[in-house]
Design goal:
The chain contains nine helices and eight strands. It is α/β, with parallel strands linked by helices and 298 residues long.
């Protein structure tokens, strides 16, 4: 990991916070899969529209499979179907489940809660339309990394309130807190891939400061975490978000929600997309796939 960070620093690419959102999106797309595993071949890869948004379906067979709605990371501001294509292929291929990736609306053109609304609408659509896609809408999961993990956690509340049969929330290095106040934000503020300035740049594009206690942005702030879907939480040790991820796992457990927690040592935020260089990334993919298999099985 340290060697990778050195190589990234030597490349001297401008940080996202020094770019416009449009420039940052292009830069992220260009570099997003350089360290990812090669895109795995799958029996089904289909572009479609879900609740009015572009989406992409991945499935390893034509069987009636369970399905995971996947929400990409990128600080609610960058990221798309292409930046997370390899990751979604790996999750589908390793788990045997279908994965539906959603291209939700991004800030600053679409500020909070647009991304939340898109995620909720997509889960409701998937529950209703899964059979038309040849999938099993009674075996649903939701997952995401970073900001997508935040959206996945929020979507679990929507499923609970709407009575949707959500079997899993897969939270990969999620943001869960209203403020950057946990100690890990100080420990890893600079030099660990995701720095404090970039986090604030993302948030300022997405949400007003006086809205940040809204539980749809900060799931830790929710009043009641009981009866949410079982959670698989994957965290990185050298990540500004690690402490709030641990705090969220604790809150879920205290509310009686089953939690599987994996803390990858010695790696940074976004490490799961570095499988070409990090064995920890491959182990993390296997952890996620095992959780999908366990919770979305018949």
């Amino acid at each position: 990991m340290a060697e990778l960070l050195t190589r990234i620093q030597r490349a001297k690419r401008p940080p996202f916070h020094a770019l416009t959102p449009r420039e940052a999106r292009l830069a992220y797309r260009m570099g997003a899969e350089i360290l990812d595993l090669p895109r795995a071949a799958l029996a089904r890869v289909e572009d479609l529209e879900v609740a009015g948004r572009p989406a992409r379906l991945y499935a390893p067979s034509a069987d009636k499979l369970p399905v995971l709605l996947y929400l990409h990371g990128g600080g609610f501001t960058i990221g798309d179907l292409e930046t997370h294509d390899s990751l979604c292929r790996q999750l589908s291929n390793r788990s045997g489940a279908a994965v539906l990736a959603l291209d939700y609306r991004l800030a600053p053109e679409h500020r909070f809660p647009a991304a939340v609304d898109d995620a909720w609408a997509a889960l409701a659509w998937l529950h209703e339309q899964a059979s038309a896609l040849g999938l099993d809408g009674s075996r649903l999961g939701v997952g995401g990394d970073s900001a997508g993990g935040t959206l996945a956690a929020s979507t679990a509340f929507f499923a609970r309130e709407q009575g949707l049969p959500l079997a899993l929330q897969l939270l990969i290095t999620p943001g869960t807190a209203a403020r950057l106040s946990h100690d890990s934000h100080r420990r890893f503020a600079e030099g660990y891939l995701l720095d404090a300035t970039t986090i604030e740049w993302f948030f300022s594009h997405y949400i007003d400061a006086d809205q940040r206690s809204d539980w749809r942005f900060a799931p830790l702030e929710a009043e009641d975490h009981a009866d949410l879907a079982p959670a698989a939480v994957l965290l990185a040790e050298a990540d500004p978000l690690v402490d709030e991820g641990l705090a969220y796992a604790d809150v879920l457990r205290a509310a009686g929600v089953p939690v599987q927690l994996e803390l990858a040592r010695g790696v940074t935020h976004d490490f799961i997309k570095m499988g070409r260089s990090l064995p920890e990334a491959v182990a993390a993919l296997d952890f996620c796939a095992a959780a999908i298999k366990e919770h979305l099985k018949p």
